[in-house]
Write a structure and sequence with these properties.
The chain is of the alpha+beta class and about 120 residues long. The protein contains three helices and five strands. The chain is about 35% helix and about 25% strand.
Length: about 120
């Protein structure tokens, strides 16, 4: 049975609640605006533009992967840092052990800082 959550129904009085499903809750949670730190944004743009830009024919563009870290509050998702991870072909990126080690190191760093940031 799907776990049910309650939300306020604006069409009813303020004390009314209506159950919603997990998928609806997930969708509502993911509709928060995202605020990206300027330095994190710069890192994303610089890394991405190394593999896809106007001076590279589009057939030679590469797909990239990276890690974003930050935190969320009731209203926003805040991206504080970005870490380039790898690049691949035009539509395929392969992760290997070194990438998973790098991800683990970022995770350990975030945990060690103790400020509630996550990937």
């Amino acid at each position: 049975m799907t776990e049910e959550f309650e939300k306020r129904n604006p069409d009813k009085d303020e004390n009314s609640h209506e159950p919603i499903s997990d998928s609806e809750t997930e969708s509502a949670r993911n509709n928060k605006p995202v605020i990206i730190n300027a330095e994190a944004y710069k890192n994303i743009i610089l890394y991405a533009s190394r593999y896809a830009n106007q001076s590279i024919p589009s057939k030679d563009w590469k797909e990239i992967y990276g890690i974003l870290t930050g935190y969320a509050d009731d209203d926003f998702v805040f991206v504080k840092n970005s870490y380039p991870l790898t690049f691949g072909h035009d539509t395929d990126v392969q992760l290997d052990e070194r990438h998973y080690v790098f991800i683990s190191e970022i995770e350990e760093m975030l945990y060690g800082e103790g400020n509630g940031h996550f990937m």
